[in-house]
Amino acid sequence: MALVCKLFLLFIFSVLTYSGSTSLYGIGGKWRTTENRLTNVAISKGYPVVIVMIYTSCPHACPMTIAKLKQIESAFHKKGIDEINFVLASFDFEGDKPEKLKEFQRAQKLDPVYWHFLAPESEGDARSLAVALGISYKKISKSDFSHSNVITLLDKEGNILAKIDQLNADIKPIIDGLKK
Amino acid sequence: MWSLVFLGKFIFLSIAFALESEGTVSIPKGKIEAIWLAPVSVSQKSSGPQIEVSAFLMHEHAVTNKQFKLFLKKHPEWEKTNANKLFVDDSYLLEFYSPQAKDNQPVTYVSWFAARAFCEHLDMRLPNINEWEYAAAASNSKRDANRESDFLKRILKWYGEPKGESIKSVKSIYQNYYGLWDMHGLIWEWVEDFNSSFVTGESREDSSFNKEMFCGAGALSSADKENYAAFMRFAFRSALKGSSGIWNLGFRCVR
Asked: Is residue B13 part of a domain?
């Protein structure tokens, strides 16, 4: 009974929070941090966020994505914006378990205070985030995905401010997307 | 005594399950030539890969306005005025609230996110492309009619029809081999992985989708008319966003 009440309250809360909103954080879904803690894509709510989707067995695009994100980070730092957070959510529900993402993060030397890797709990969780971000993807073999590369800037509440959708695109729309 | 309780529970669960599953049709597992996954070099007379689809249950007809109304009662967060604008566009449920909307018409102008939420509330989900195409390949007499010219002609004829006055009721077009109604000819239907159409092996150059399939000219030059209906569905899906609402786009769920 208590559980039912709790669920009901949670439901009312989510309706109140998200009704008429445009926030990505209304998407729900279950994700895990590199510490295997259950969370969701709103993990950095309260901070401006750059969010992308990746998979770590990816040989080419993902290292390029990381390089692009580092470039974005230093451009923000130059503007005096230090609290920018990065959320990197995986497509790969089978391959990218929390420990694997943690290993990847360590290898890439990305500060866990600002950089958050997320492992989807189910294929559907990955799919719905991709659709919300306008990313197409398809699993083409056991460990390979073909996917579009979209980098999205969110405000503190999860509203989409800017997007770039090619790895060789100028990062300016992202850097200028955040009003200081 | 306990066995009686057990028996009671069993009967109760069976009845509950029967009620829940009402309006679904069971689709047996099977192999099929996936001409929709094709191939495909356009120049070759193509044949798709053989794929295996596991058994599943599917709604016998597209979800209706009436069914959607019941869903909204339980989930008011999906009413037009409440829904998150990232998950529905301005056309969301455009005709649903009008007095002309009939209970037994399929619900349309419904976004992928809303369709998914509906299925979830029944403990179901949207079919993926393979499941949908597998089920839709059946004519009224054959499991796989993807190479039957009459069947394909009818589909293509429907694709060419202009927008009518209003959408017909569910169960008004045809019932296929499995007992599914109107898989073609009534509306287009959402699939879970609609955003995987046209993605090819190259993920570096982003959104570099399969040009051979993407480009209409490529599809047309293909002598293989058998693939053309599938091409059309791919082209349609690839043009969608998760928030899209379209006058003749609805859905049905599977489990």
From this structure: no
B6 domain residue, yes or no = no
CATH of the domain at B79: 3.90.1580
d(CA A51, CA A69): 9
Residue B209: Cβ within 10 Å count = 19
Token pair 């205070």 in the structure block, residue:
A113
B84, B193, B204 ranked by CB distance to A60: nearest: B204
Collect all residues of chain A within an 8 Å Cβ-Cβ radius of residue B199: 136-138, 146-148
Tell me, yes or no, whether B2 lies in a domain.
no
How large is the ipTM?
Answer: 0.85
Percent of chain B with pLDDT over 70: 75
- Please name the CATH architecture into which domain A22-177 falls: 3-Layer(aba) Sandwich (3.40)
Give B 6-35 residues with CB within 8 A of chain A: none
Residue B180 forms part of a structural domain: yes
Alpha carbon of residue B170 to chain centroid: 14
Longest dimension (CA), chain B: 72
Show residues of chain A in contact with B200, CB under 8 Å.
146
In this predicted structure, what is the pLDDT of residue B162?
84
Q: Cβ atoms within 10 A of the Cβ of A77, count?
A: 11
Poorest-confidence range of A101-105, A135-139, B169-173, B217-221? Answer: B217-221
B204: exposed, middle or buried (Cβ count in 10 Å: 0-12, 13-18, 19+):
middle
pLDDT bracket for residue A164 (50, 70, 90): very high
Number of neighbouring beta carbons within 10 Å of residue B63 = 25
Number of domains in chain B: 1
CA A135 – CA A58 distance, rounded (Å): 16
pLDDT, tens digit (0-9, with 9 covering 90-100), for B114-159: 999 999 999 999 999 999 999 999 999 999 998 888 999 999 999 8
- The domain of B113 spans 23-250
pLDDT in tens, B50-92: 899 999 999 999 999 999 999 999 999 999 999 999 999 999 9
The helix (H) or strand (E) run that includes residue A124 is: helix A123-133
